[in-house]
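User: Let's play a game. I give you a shape written as tokens, and you guess the letters that built it. Ready? Here's round one.
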């Protein structure tokens, strides 16, 4: 089931006779005064199931013609949407009309988190069964806040009785008015050509091993002055499942190389790194005998021990963020780059991608295969007016190399529900359940529902070695067995660096901690049993 209708009630169309109207060429707002039906695409947390965060579907503010007096979330003219991944708002015009345009007015108020969607898609149907996407309302960006933004779309007239407005909701969307323009005379209007209006954005299937290129990808943090480079001996119990000192089987088949967060951030603020630091990051990946070299040697040993001399593991490189405040990044192609300029930011990212690609190929690794690149930031900063163009350039360029781009947004991060339109090939969703005991067990199932709905894979996270940390990582595994992401999805794994918690579990004499290593192997091989774990089913998101 794709849509989870847990707030607005029934979304089904109720057949009613077409009302008799005077057929006229007068173009007007056909929605004025009409009621609507609404559906959400994801479970809305309990704390947001209120009239303040989500106006009830019976509320008429979307079509009452009343405009806001002020650009503030407290103005009573706005209809409220919070969370729930996305919305469809359905209207019955009462009779077949010729529709040719639509408009929306909504609030952007940065201080309260009221934002704008990337687009609002208008779908039309003559019979309520076959639907056609007839137009997108876009370009909601603005240099100021708070502000009420008005945008519209025009298209060739089509015959329609039913329309749906569809848009993503990452946090708060406050809409003032929806308008649909057309007339009741349908002469000359085009017939609806039904299309699959939701298949691309809502595939309702997990991202697979085939999409990612690997089934189980370990986040291999490196590149921090206080951390030792990763040796072959440390990589070995990640590449292989080792029991009583003997290599028994393979384990993680992919490795995402990425810098420690402290290398890129100071608190929550991105560090304005220059080319010198970017070069240091690249060089650190290829330290002789460590990091990339060490992984190649570990894969070679595992393959030899298991009778697979050609065995390879996959690797993914990271793409660092070109912070706009950097005015003198360093010289590339004969000029000192200025990151206030979009073309200079593109040039730096192309250089970073090319440098890593060339260094990897020059090493001629026999047991590593490069699969793609990872966009490091965990959210999309839509306030950066250049970012969408920068992302599209980057993802398109990586594909010219025959590689993919991947991204790992945190739970409900900005842009998580628009990842395909951002240009990524595969996205892995973070449940963010591992790090806070106050997060209920339901989070794992909500994250799985969303990941499947949007066609993402899942990140498994282990936050420490205390008893409650151990209990939580096993609940990730059990939830995967129950929801299907254990076998149907690709996975990425966060474990606080390499060596990290999986290595500590491998080397530990404590049976409880060591069981994490064994259970990770069972999960990777698809044999973890959910009946071993007990969930608190009475908890829910607050």
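Assistant: Ready! My guess for every position:
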């Amino acid at each position: 089931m794709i849509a989870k209708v847990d707030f607005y009630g029934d979304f089904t169309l109720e057949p009613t006779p077409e009302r008799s109207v005077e057929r006229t060429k007068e173009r007007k707002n056909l929605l004025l005064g009409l009621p609507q039906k609404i559906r959400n695409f994801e479970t809305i947390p309990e704390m947001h199931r209120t009239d303040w965060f989500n106006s009830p579907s019976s509320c008429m503010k979307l079509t009452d013609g009343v405009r806001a007096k002020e650009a503030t979330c407290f103005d009573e003219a706005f209809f409220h949407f919070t969370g729930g991944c996305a919305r469809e708002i359905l209207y019955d015009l009462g009779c077949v009309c010729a529709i040719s345009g639509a408009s929306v007015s909504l609030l952007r108020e940065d201080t309260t988190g009221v934002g704008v969607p990337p687009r609002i898609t208008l779908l039309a149907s003559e019979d309520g069964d076959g639907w056609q996407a007839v137009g997108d309302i876009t370009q909601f960006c603005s240099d100021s806040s708070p502000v009420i933004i008005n945008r519209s779309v025009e298209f060739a007239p089509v015959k329609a009785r039913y329309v749906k407005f569809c848009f993503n909701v990452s946090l708060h969307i406050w809409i003032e008015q929806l308008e649909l323009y057309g007339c009741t005379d349908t002469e000359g209007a085009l017939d609806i050509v039904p299309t699959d209006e939701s298949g691309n954005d809502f595939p309702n299937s997990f991202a697979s091993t085939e999409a990612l290129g690997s089934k189980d990808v370990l986040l291999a943090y490196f590149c921090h002055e206080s951390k030792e480079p990763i040796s072959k001996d440390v990589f070995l119990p990640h590449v292989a499942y080792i029991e009583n000192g003997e290599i028994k089987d393979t384990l993680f088949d992919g490795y995402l190389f990425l810098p420690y967060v402290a290398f890129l951030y100071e608190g929550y603020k991105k560090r304005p790194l220059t080319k010198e630091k970017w070069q240091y990051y690249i060089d650190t990946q290829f330290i002789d005998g460590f990091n990339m070299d060490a992984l190649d040697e570990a894969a070679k040993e595992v393959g030899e021990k298991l009778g697979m001399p050609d065995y390879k593991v996959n690797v993914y490189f990271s793409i660092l963020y070109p912070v706009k405040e950097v005015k003198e990044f360093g010289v590339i192609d004969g000029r000192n780059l200025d990151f206030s300029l979009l073309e200079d930011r593109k040039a730096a990212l192309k250089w970073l991608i090319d440098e890593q690609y060339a260094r990897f190929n020059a090493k001629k690794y026999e047991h590593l295969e490069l699969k793609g690149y990872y966009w490091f930031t965990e959210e999309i900063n839509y306030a950066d007016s250049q970012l969408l163009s920068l992302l599209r350039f980057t993802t398109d360029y990586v594909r010219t190399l025959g590689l993919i781009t991947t991204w790992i947004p945190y739970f409900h991060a900005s842009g998580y529900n628009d990842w395909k339109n951002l240009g990524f090939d595969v996205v892995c969703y973070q449940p963010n359940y591992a790090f806070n005991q106050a997060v209920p067990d339901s989070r794992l199932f909500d994250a799985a529902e969303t990941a499947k709905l949007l066609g993402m894979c899942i990140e498994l996270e282990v936050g420490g070695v205390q008893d409650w940390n151990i209990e939580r990582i096993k609940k990730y595994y059990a939830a995967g067995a129950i929801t299907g992401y254990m076998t149907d999805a690709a996975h990425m794994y966060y474990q606080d660096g390499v060596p990290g918690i999986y290595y500590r579990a491998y080397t530990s004499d404590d049976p409880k901690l060591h069981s994490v290593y064994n259970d990770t192997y069972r999960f990777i091989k698809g044999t973890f049993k959910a009946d071993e774990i007990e969930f608190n089913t009475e908890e829910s998101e607050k």
